[in-house]
Amino acid sequence: MMGYILEIAQALLALLLAPGLVGLVRWLKARLQNRRGAPPWLPYFELRKLFGKEMIVSTNASWLFHAAPYLVFASTVAVTLIIPLIAVPLPFDSVGDLLLVVYLLLVGTFFLSLAGLDPGTAFGGMGASREMTVAAIAEPTIAVAIFSLAIGAGSTNLGQIVTETLSNSDVSIGPGHMLAFAALFIVMLAETSRLPVDNPSTHLELTMIHEAMILEYSGRYLALVEWASWLKLLIFFSLLSNLFVPWGLATVFTPAALGFALVTLILKLVFFAIIVALLETRIAKLRLFRVPELLGVSFVLALLAVTSSFLLK
Amino acid sequence: MTSFLFLFMILAYTASVLAALIGGQDKLGALGAALGAGAGVALGVSVIASGTPFSRVLPDLIPLTGGFVIRLDALGAFFLILIGLIAIPATIFGVGYTATYENEHVSLRFLGVMFSLFLLSMSLVTMAGNVLTFLLMWEGMSLTSYFLVITENGEESTLRAGLWYAAMTHAGLALLLAAFVLLMNGGSSSFTDLRANSATLPTATRDAIFLLAFFGFGSKAGIVPLHVWLPKAHPAAPSHVSALMSGVMIKLGVYGLLRVVLDLLGGGPAWWGSLILGIGVISALLGILYALMEHDLKRLLAYSSVENIGIILIGVGAGLIFHSYGLMSLAALSLIGGLYHAINHASFKGLLFLGAGSVLYATHTRNMEKMGGLIKPMPWTALFFLIGSVAISALPPLNGFVSEWLVFQSLLAGFNIPKPELAILMPVAVGILALTSGLAAACFVKAFGISFLAIPRSAEAKNAQEAPLSMRIGMAILAVICLGLGVGPVVVVPFLGKTISGLGHLPEATPRFTSDLSLRTPDALGKISPALAAVGLLLLLTLIPIMFSVFRVNRRLRLGETWGCGHTGQTPRMEYTATAFAEPLRRVFAEMYRPTKELSIDFHPDSKYFVESIEYKSEISPLFDRWLYDPFLKSVRFFSRQVQHLQSGSLHLYLVYLIGLLIILLLAARWL
What we know:
The structure holds two protein chains of two kinds.
Chain A: H1 2-32, H2 42-52, E1 55-58, H3 63-82, H4 98-117, H5 122-153, H6 158-167, H7 169-172, H8 175-191, H9 210-213, H10 219-244, H11 255-282, H12 291-312
Chain B: H1 2-22, H2 26-50, E1 54-58, E2 68-72, H3 74-97, H4 108-127, H5 131-149, H6 156-184, H7 191-197, H8 203-221, H9 230-236, H10 239-264, H11 270-293, H12 297-324, H13 328-363, H14 379-392, H15 399-412, H16 420-423, H17 425-452, H18 459-462, H19 469-487, H20 489-500, E3 519-520, E4 527-528, H21 530-550, E5 557-560, H22 578-588, H23 590-593, E6 595-603, E7 611-620, H24 623-644, H25 651-671
Antiparallel strand pairs in B: 1-2, 3-4, 6-7
């Protein structure tokens, strides 16, 4: 029973933390660029504003345009029920593994791209086409990185991977681990539309990807889509931290352990926020047609990760 | 019971042929075909459930090499079910679809006869119990489908497609004949005897049989590089026939491969499996890459069939590799993954072809650049096509995800292979499979998005009307099958376990998969429960509107024009096209596509700042047509020209030939 309560609590926690996390990244970025920046809690007000607004929907749009935000949001929230955030092992661990997580996220991308095409704008089509391109070429890296994790843990299920890493850390932490981490980090940047793949703070630029796709959304639909994309950032941050550095996760469901897990989770998220903010102030956006090279690098890293896991097994 | 079902199946198909022959009885004919297909499904289910094969020998029917032998075991039964599941909706769809042919030069009578005979011969392929029966039915299937391909014989391109198909399928048949002759080794031709004797064959013969069978069946399955007929012939056929050809017929290539390699030969060395796996990986990747560049909707689907055959073969190949190292439970897992993907692909590709058929029916075009906005006039077709697209993109909770997950899991278990140099190739296969599935998602966003969404790009698309009821029912059945296979792997997987148990000494794989609601894999690499995931998604979806009313979210909605950056009056010309959608990927994979680009701009004579017209032309060069088939066809043509010189038309010369031949024969008789 406790497990199920924790599942729901964890999903609510993710929903609650996601806007703050994005706000933090934005604020840190602003500070690093010598700007004052908006306060980190601005996204919460953004959500409230969007949920309170009237929507304008294109006359060309079909029912798919209306259905997509729900599907995107629901599939992303479903992922937060499967991934390890504060405690392992949770009951829903056997409902889905890492592959299901990846494909659930792809559900969101798929429907958002279709919704981008639906109003018939050139921008929407452009965003959809690029989003699918990036998603497709990021896929092999993710799969091969999962492979190397699965070899180490003997399972693709997240709870299993985490408990395995916790119980014999000297075996599971090795060069393969680090290479897989590097590979997934690059993929994270691509999947969450961060620099150098996409610029999250542009509107109306010919280089944009994610923002182009959701250009026609407004009001509560935009709120759902934005919230889901912030949630995706939190999901990737916590996957990167909890799969590779699982220490701090509660393995017993006591208040003390859970409280400690919550604190470590927030610390890990802040750490990743700092890294991403630093990265985004230091590097420029890549040309779209250079992105495959970057993802190619990540694929090679992932392959090396598997190879070393093989050799050291 | 089984004999009754068998007889009923034969009679129903025969009745349907007769109904078609009499003419004007399409509904009766369709009913007969659907009943026959249904009896086939029932027969298959009862054979797998009871575990006892059904057999009948008719020695007097064809008094040659053992007569006409019917023997349906679990493997054949699985494929018989697969045929029936797609044939029923395709037949129902056909009732409405063929109505368009009434005003054209198409013989509905001939179409009906061939359609039922095609279904019957496919069903009998799975039941063949000896070489003669198998080859006869195999050829019957090829011929009837050839006639179905050239149904719309008013067009030159259709006839050419038919010719390609006939040539490729008969080249395959020649290889199969050779394979079976080697396998029979001068002895009995019944599969039971072949199975018993195959172990005594020398290794070189077994290797030769494997290669001949792989490429022979591969030409039917559409593996790269023998796939060239597929994107030509499948789109040319009437859409419900395309659904059967892409969904079902090419799977019989997989059936044949499993029958000969795993069943009759009992498996082989690891390089057999590696070859199948390698070709599977290449087919999957190239198939989807070519599908992405296609804007002919049906040809896109045909190329995607090449991709999916690749995925099935990845499962089969991995299974054979595991089998050769004695890792039986992993072999069972891989084969189950492959077979699961076979039935999944049959259902969603059948659905997509029927959907493309309704679009073709409504708009009279296969060119996606002329479609658009069809979701409004054709909401049902759009919904069904979307379900098919989601399923083929392997998105949960539909069926494509489950089988790709199984194949992934079996490849992930590849580190159990004792040979490191082979095991290290598994992650590469995983990477390519993942790339393939990502590209498939992109491809079907394009297929659905460009055809069904946004503003109509032509008058035909604007005036399109929803397909008639029979066509919608056909699609609905397949959509339900897609959903059922997606959430019900706990039922399907044990069933597949029974299908493959005993093949090449595989143990029955059932118990390991039924422990609880989760789909567990043997060596506990992963577990998922697609059914629970589907329920969860559904709950979350209903929760959002509830939360909206709890938190009093603003529900007002205003319709407005699409924002055009200050430009008003949006036209279809401003939309993204299918070509533009695929452009980034065309650049990324330029090495493979070798695109040619032609850009000509006409300027105003007075100033080059005013453009009068721009013409942009871009083509990709089909690798295999250019480098493999063109040289081959050229040399064949050259050779035939040379032979022509012999035939001058002069009687005297021919007499000289005869005398020359006589002398040669006499000399040969003297010395040999």
